[in-house]
Specification:
Length: 571
């Protein structure tokens, strides 16, 4: 701002001489007057500075209040009770019998079936051990183990998919063999697909959908499996473009208009595997009984692990995937949450053609993100751009939306160019949204507090929050003290890396201390940390020099503002 013009007045020569005399002869004037003037000037400066600080503080408070008003909480927090919703859904979808006799019979039959399935390993495993790695017996044992897991059903496939990512627990050969379950599992036949489509879309579903027959895909699948499976695939009229433990996906075209897409549009048709609902429900019934029994055995002291609660949480995640209408709802919410970002895309579900066993959605073109990196089709700027975009997306899911894609491995992240935008920027397409993680407001605010403390390297506060927010904690006062001290030591010993820069290392150490001192970690913290770790791994592969904290920190601050917490200082 410019100072307003000041009028000048004429100064006489006498006044000038008097001023000069005062300057060079200060002793001729009272020192008391000088001291008074100095005090007054200092007081004026102090008052001015105090007013400036008060104005700045008021402006900061106004800005913070405006930001809090602009940051809206997820609508779902006030729409329903998450725990009650999960309970109601689980009771509604369960296929177990209504009487205890029916449930016991179903559990007994399932145990016998699994025992028979696993029994050949009792012979193959010793033979493989005696023959040594790479022998024919060893290959037979591994092939049968993978086949038996696939035959056992989705519950066991999910467990081994998780196990194949934990190279800190299992040997490398185990990881290499069972990692094949991550990308593709054995599907069901076209005949079974036809039966499900006729049940959901009617006997004339061919008048609605024209399925794509890909000889290239047929050969790819045939080469991945043994002779018997190869012959079955070659006999199939149509082969899926992908198969998971819950369902398999075909590519097709619409033969008629729908409410959202015109005829001729390419769509993905997801068909659930037959008879898996009963398997999953019985599996969780058995696991629930086993964990309850183990927790009641004296002297084992396993109750602090809350294995029964962990089984229940696993069940709450698995069961919604068995109803494809839930995935359609997930897609709608993701599309709403990211409607303001044209560089993030989710498939459009077609409600007219979607049911509990069939999901029809707009086909998403693109190439898996890591394949583009391996083939060298991304320059340095594009790699950094995609790394930041992916991190920002996951952090927004965790901290702002409380709705996290729970299966965000590289195969579910496709990259293409948004041809509708100027410059055709790269776009991330996220698919396979059946598995999501949702916490609810109370667990979410606890998560923000814990992660905020870890980011600030306040390990003691983070550890105490973990203890205070645990629904069941049997740790003694000494264990709690040692746990807090251990978490603080982890933060102090790793000054070069922030929590967000090395989530995997932090999480492994935290889990070790939790087991050692009998502190139960809440699933919301573990799930959010795992999502961060997966995306951090992908981002570091794209751009090793990227600082994760620079992307994640603003989201954490916004989350604190959303919950009305004291914001963190920049590190």
């Amino acid at each position: 701002l410019r100072h307003p013009a000041v009028a000048l007045k004429t100064i006489s020569s006498t006044q000038i001489r008097t001023s000069i005399h005062k300057y060079y002869n200060p002793s001729s004037y009272s020192s008391v007057n000088v001291l008074d003037r100095t005090k007054k000037n200092v007081a004026r400066l102090y008052a001015r500075r105090a007013l400036e600080l008060a104005a700045a503080s008021a402006a900061t408070m106004v800005t913070t209040a405006q930001m809090e008003a602009q940051i809206e909480k997820p609508l779902e927090w006030s729409a329903y009770d998450l725990a009650e919703k999960r309970k109601t859904f689980g009771e509604g979808i369960s296929s177990l019998g209504k009487t205890s006799i029916e449930r016991i019979w179903a559990a007994g039959s399932r145990i016998v079936n699994l025992t028979l399935l696993a029994s050949p390993l009792g012979v193959l495993t010793p033979l493989a051990y005696l023959s040594g790695p790479g022998s024919m017996a060893s290959n037979w044992a591994w092939d049968y183990a993978i086949w038996s897991v696939e035959k056992a059903g989705p519950t066991f496939i999910k467990l081994f998919q998780w196990a194949s990512t934990r190279n800190d627990i299992f040997p490398s050969e185990f990881i290499n063999k069972f990692s094949t379950l991550q990308s593709n599992t054995r599907g069901h036949s076209w005949k079974e697909t036809v039966s499900i489509l006729e049940e959901c879309l009617g006997s004339k579903f061919h008048d609605i959908l024209e399925f794509e027959d890909s000889n290239i895909r047929r050969k790819e699948l045939a080469n991945k499996h043994g002779l018997a499976m190869r012959k079955m695939i070659e006999r199939q009229k149509y082969v899926p473009i992908g198969s998971g433990c819950i369902a398999q996906v075909y590519k097709a075209k619409l033969k008629e208009d729908t409410s959202l897409l015109p005829a001729g549009s390419e769509v993905a048709v997801k068909v659930i595997h037959p008879n898996i609902l009963h398997k999953v429900c019985v599996d969780f019934y058995i696991l629930n009984k086993i964990t309850s029994l183990l927790e009641k055995i004296p002297y084992l002291n396993l109750d602090y692990l809350s294995m029964k609660d962990s089984v229940q949480q696993f069940r709450d995640i698995m069961l919604p995937q068995l109803d494809l209408r839930v995935e359609a709802n997930n897609l709608r919410r993701f599309r709403r949450d990211f409607s303001d970002d044209d560089r993030i895309s989710f498939p459009l579900p077609l409600d007219d053609l979607t049911s509990n066993n069939v999901l029809v959605e707009a086909f998403v073109c693109g190439e898996p993100i890591m394949e583009m990196l391996e083939h060298g089709r991304l320059n340095a700027d594009q790699r950094e751009d995609l790394a930041k975009l992916g991190l920002k997306t996951v952090m927004k899911m965790i901290f702002m939306n409380d709705f996290v894609h729970g299966d965000l491995h590289p195969g579910n992240i496709l990259v293409d160019k948004n041809i509708q935008k100027r410059g055709k920027p790269l776009r991330l397409n996220l698919i396979d949204c059946g598995l999501v993680v949702e916490m609810g407001e109370n667990d979410h605010v606890n998560l923000v507090k814990i992660l905020g403390a870890l980011i600030k390297r306040d390990g003691s506060s983070a550890a105490q929050l973990m203890v205070d927010t645990a629904k069941k904690c049997q740790a003694s006062a000494l264990d709690v003290k040692l746990f807090c001290k251990g978490i603080q030591t982890i933060c102090d010993d790793d000054l070069d890396n922030n929590f967000l820069e090395s989530v995997g290392d932090y999480l492994a150490d935290i889990c070790y201390l939790a087991c050692k001192h009998k502190v139960k970690l809440e699933a919301s913290f573990i799930n959010a940390a795992l999502a961060c770790e997966i995306m951090e791994g992908i981002a570091s592969s794209l751009c090793p020099t990227l600082e994760v904290q620079s992307v994640a920190f603003p989201m954490v601050v916004k989350a604190e503002l959303m919950h009305g917490l004291k914001t963190m200082k920049m590190l």
